[in-house]
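Troubleshooting entry. Yesterday's outputs looked truncated, so today I'm pasting the complete records for two proteins to confirm everything comes through intact. If either block looks cut off, that's the bug. Protein one:
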Amino acid sequence: MSKRLKDGVLVAFFAIWIAGLFLLGIIMPDKDISFSERRKLSKFPEISAESLSTGKFMSAFETYSADQFPFRESFRKLKAIGEYYVFNQSDSNGIYLSGGFAAKLDYPLDEESIDYAAGRINFIYDSFLKDRAKGVYLSVIPDKNYFLKDTGAPTLDYGRLVALMREKTDFAEYIDIFPSLELEDYYRTDTHWRIEKIAGAADTLAKGLGTEISEKYEVKPVDTEFYGVLCGQSSLPMKAEKMYYISSPEIDNAAVLNAETGKYQGVYDFEKADGTDPYEIYLSGPRSLMTIENPASDGGTLIIFRDSFGSSVAPYLIGSYKKIILVDTRYLAAPMLPRFVDFDGADVLFLYSTMILNSSETMT
């Protein structure tokens, strides 16, 4: 076979292959969600004179085409494996592996973001807490990169971050949980910490708040195999992890009012174990306002301003309070708080991860 004929056959093969993918893209129904990436996928953009003339249609169509490309997940995995294992890139889609742990690069320190986060906390303090709350506290949760500083990957200046937050929120008593944590307290495939591993950090928080956690709890397994968000975002092959929850009579009998549904539920929402993010079993995941009521306690009220990390540490504190209110100002605008929360005589804890503080534009 001549070289010219070989080239012709090769070109024809790729033309048929591309045409086949194109036809599949037309025939196959669009997917709503990427379960591995835990996000909604783009839909076919609306066609209008304005969108065509401004170029918005083509821009949206490019995003749609990439999201709905046939066998997209397989191609993502193949690309990630090639980049990481064949071409020895240090990361895949901004995620790197070290000692079996996946971590997402978060660098550099964004001091403007820290300033904004502190500003939102100051607004809440000045508007609702000053001369009303019993005590005001601040604690920062380190992300996994803090424990991987020796890998050579760029990391935040954590000391500077904490110092800035303490300086800008000097009305709050700082509770340092960094020494109570270690790398093994976090999931290998996810950004979050493991509920069964953070008793030490929870106890440090409790003592900082002037109380203590109960030692009478059981660690129980969740019937699911957990692939964390970093596994999906990187597309690298990783092993599933086991999930657990903690149980005690006070936790099991607590009633949780979900302000978004107006209904009471349990501390754990086990139906979420089969959803896109099993971590949402802890207090139903991202929610604007959740109130935990413990009828067996004669303690007071604790209000926690938090991100998703707070969902899995709150169960440890149930035994110490009659009521725990968890507020996420990413979903509930701070000026609206007096309509839903009574701050008089309550302890208030601002508990945020370094990931949120270094990217705080979602705090309202």
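Protein two, checking that the full record survives here as well:
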Amino acid sequence: MELLYRFLAAPADFLTTYALPFVVVLSVLVFVHEWGHYIIARLCGVKIETFSIGFGKEIFGWTDRAGTRWKVSWVPLGGYVQMFGDSDPVSARHRSEVKEGEKRRPFTEAEKKVAFYTQSVAKRAAIVFAGPAINFIFAIVILTLMFAIHGQPYTPPIAGALIVGSPAEKAGIRPDDKILEMDGQPMTRFEDIAMHTSVSLDKEIEVKLVRMVKKGVWSRRPIILHVKPTIVTEVDRFGFKSQRGRIGLKAVKGQFGLKRHTPVSAFIAANKEVWEISASTLKAIGQIISGTRSSDELGGILRIGAYAGDFAKQGIVALIMFTALLSVNLGLINFLPIPMLDGGHLAFFAMETVKGKPMSERFQEYALRVGLAFLLGIMLFATWNDLVQLKVFAYVKHLMS
């Protein structure tokens, strides 16, 4: 409800605080994603007709020496790279023809060399793969720079205190225990412990720890315990709900700080961070699909915009972390084997490789229709979730009563 009140009370302030950071972050990530497609396409000899940030009518743009139209359009919710010969990916005839006015003619030999669909399957797959792949690379790069220059948020993986009657206390964890692993995964920071227990919901966790024998010294003999988290539904100040697994373990007070890294260790830490974000996101998606996690957590552009503004107010470091998180999520989503997404096109190319020829036009057409309907449905559902949790409908009902 807070977001709605802010918008109604001061629309101009709302736009600069929430809408502007959202548009900037999303535009950067879209540019990075589409640049991945663009640069590999150019390396493969494919002609790029348009590189657009946003959809709809062009606001401004320019044409470079290679004939590519670079432009910014009015609807800042995505972007695209239009490659020569890619106007109708379903029609085999249109893949080998170019439109001139109201008529079409076959490609010339020179045009065949620069058209997308006349390239080998390997080249087409590389071009499509490069988009989501570079989102992961971008996240690693900005996190590496941040960890090397500013430092990485760090709290020792030590039990500072336990909530009385909590799952951690019942499992036998004691204050000053040092957590080494959870479910076989190394816990190098308390932040790792929090993330692992959060996405585990109420699934039992195997904890490997060592016990303190004297101040600052832990036993070399590890102890294996099993703890079952409790599911807690948290509601943030915007009204957005999220389910978390909690074991009642608290970090050591006053131990939060920034861990300085060399360029090499920063790169390693950034890769680990991206890996953990990816694993946690995929696990959460699987939980939503299986029904163990509420679908209310599926958020849309309103939720992303709210968090973008919130992180921007916390400072550049928080905004960089959010941008990295969003970049990884964008890459993951685009790798899903859903028609209309990059993963769907890669699935088509895999089928083409196995079959020795492209899938039938009818199959591709129906698959793309189903994929489009599915994506639109998810977008509408996510937006509905946002509106309900922001209590927009309740506010409108109150005004009308």
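Both blocks look complete. Sanity check on protein two: Residues 153-259 form a domain with the Pdz3 Domain fold (CATH 2.30.42.10).
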